[in-house]
């Protein structure tokens, strides 16, 4: 496939920006980033995925929010406010959202679901990275607290409870995959529903029935970098990030299962590919000028790039074998994105330049749908059909609970003393 064809694709993509734009499109984060802008030529999303984006969870479920001592949540944010802006902040904002949500009930006897607000990713290193090593003890302590103070956990062993566990490998509570697999999901959570960013098919850290959510990306920050909606998309392929993690993978090949290294080695000098380790101040602006945004796996299969690409209308190129994507029952990922197997990274130029122009235009029209952007964001205050509401929709679709959720007298499923010895130390 030639550079000439890529030039044609760029020209058509630039024209499509003009067709899809409106004067109000860059007015505010509520309008453009969170999806309230009035676009022309927006394509309706229909089918099993897409229609449910419009669901309204209010009236379909009731959630009881446990009132935990602040050491499990609010105090950790006071200690390190950086937690409010990192990619794992959904656990904080979900708690704040539910406290004032119409689905909240103060009567636990009428609750469909019980929410345990524990902030497990707020213990940060000086560099701002979470240290999940204390998280199992913290979570275990919180569950002991609610099971001693209220009767509801003990009726189901937590099967009608949900937890937000947004770390790299969810409730396996480790940022290195090998050790996360070795740990497995915290035994106390094996009957609960997990709301987690991590999703990979047939992986021990993905619990059946989990609700997969997008990582947190600050809506206000994205609003500050909006550019005029009629700006041409003059970049064919865009990516900024690590290709090698020399500090943690000095030998190479293990990080990103070699996919990022292959990207760099094959396309660092390709004029169609604007890729670099530099992270410019124009990063968000550049994404809005790009046709395709690469979303390769890193240490985990997901990253905030996926959210940013959707919000900025850049077709996400997902390179992460067996990934389970956020709200996959509501967002038609196959229609808005491009999936490339990790072993095919070296063919990425021919794969992308071979995509028919009409397919590119349709993906861009679908990405322009306001519902698509809303579903990927956790705005404050919350908005209808945003990521908070998609989580509630996911919980509502699990109702009513089947009879096997409730334990018979004397029946138990969970082993409170299972897991690594270190997890059993008091927190």
Keywords:
globular; 30% helix; 427 residues; alpha/beta; five-stranded parallel sheet; 16 helices
Q: What class would the helix/strand composition place it in?
A: alpha/beta
- SSE arrangement, N to C: HHEHHEHHEHEEHEHEHEHEHEHHHH
- What are the segments in which pLDDT stays under 50 over at least 5 consecutive residues? 21-32, 34-40
Number of strands: 10
Major sheet: arrangement of strands: 1-2-3-4-5
Shape, principal axes of CA atoms: globular
Describe how the helices and strands are arranged.
Layout (H helix, E strand, L loop, with lengths): L2 H18 L8 H5 L29 E3 L8 H6 L10 H10 L13 E3 L19 H15 L2 H5 L4 E4 L12 H7 L9 E4 L14 E2 L6 H5 L11 E6 L18 H9 L5 E4 L6 H6 L1 E7 L8 H7 L3 E5 L13 H4 L1 E2 L8 H6 L3 H11 L2 H5 L12 H10 L31
How does this model look, in words?
Residues 1-26 form the signal peptide. The protein has 16 helices and 10 strands. Helix content is 30%, strand content 9%. The longest helix has 18 residues, at 3-20. The protein is an alpha/beta fold and 427 residues long. A 5-stranded parallel beta sheet has the order 1-2-3-4-5. Strands 7-6-8-9-10 form a 5-stranded parallel beta sheet. Mean pLDDT is 89; it is low at 21-32 and 34-40.
């Amino acid at each position: 496939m030639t550079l000439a064809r890529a030039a044609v694709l760029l020209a058509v993509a630039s024209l499509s920006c003009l067709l899809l734009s409106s004067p109000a499109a860059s007015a505010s984060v509520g309008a453009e980033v969170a999806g309230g802008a009035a676009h022309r030529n927006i394509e309706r999303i229909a089918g099993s995925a897409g229609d449910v984006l419009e669901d309204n969870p209010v009236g379909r479920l009731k959630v009881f929010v446990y009132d935990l001592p602040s050491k499990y949540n609010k105090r950790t944010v006071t200690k390190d406010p950086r937690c409010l802006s990192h990619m794992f902040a959904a656990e904080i904002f979900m708690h704040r959202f539910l406290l004032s949500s119409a689905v909240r009930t103060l009567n636990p006897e009428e609750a469909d679901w019980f929410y345990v607000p524990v902030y497990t990713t707020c213990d940060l290193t000086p560099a701002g990275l979470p240290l999940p090593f204390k998280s199992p003890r913290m979570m275990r302590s919180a569950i002991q607290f609610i099971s001693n103070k209220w009767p509801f956990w003990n009726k189901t062993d937590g099967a009608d409870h949900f937890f937000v566990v947004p770390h790299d490998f969810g409730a396996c509570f480790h940022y290195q995959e090998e050790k996360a697999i070795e740990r497995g999901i915290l035994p106390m959570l094996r009957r609960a529903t997990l709301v987690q960013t991590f999703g990979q098919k047939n992986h021990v850290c993905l619990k059946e029935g989990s609700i997969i959510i997008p990582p947190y990306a600050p809506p206000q920050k994205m609003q500050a970098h909006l550019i005029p909606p009629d700006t041409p998309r003059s970049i064919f392929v865009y990516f900024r990030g690590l290709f090698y993690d020399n500090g943690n993978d000095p030998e190479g090949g293990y990080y990103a299962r070699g996919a990022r290294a292959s990207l760099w080695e094959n396309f660092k000098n390709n004029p169609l590919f604007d890729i670099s380790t530099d992270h410019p101040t124009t990063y968000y602006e550049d994404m809005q000028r790009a046709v395709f945004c690469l979303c390769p796996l890193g240490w985990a299969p997901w990253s905030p790039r996926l959210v940013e690409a959707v919000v900025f209308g850049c077709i996400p190129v997902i390179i992460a074998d067996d990934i389970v994507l956020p709200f996959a029952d509501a967002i038609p990922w196959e229609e808005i994105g491009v999936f490339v197997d990790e072993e095919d990274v070296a063919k990425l130029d021919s794969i992308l330049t071979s995509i028919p122009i009409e397919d590119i235009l349709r993906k861009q029209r679908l990405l322009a749908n306001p519902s698509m952007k809303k579903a990927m964001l956790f705005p404050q205050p919350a908005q209808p059909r945003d990521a908070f509401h998609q989580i509630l929709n996911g919980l509502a679709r699990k109702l009513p609970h089947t009879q096997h959720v409730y334990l018979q007298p004397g029946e138990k499923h969970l082993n409170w003393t299972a897991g690594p010895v270190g997890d059993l130390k008091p927190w």
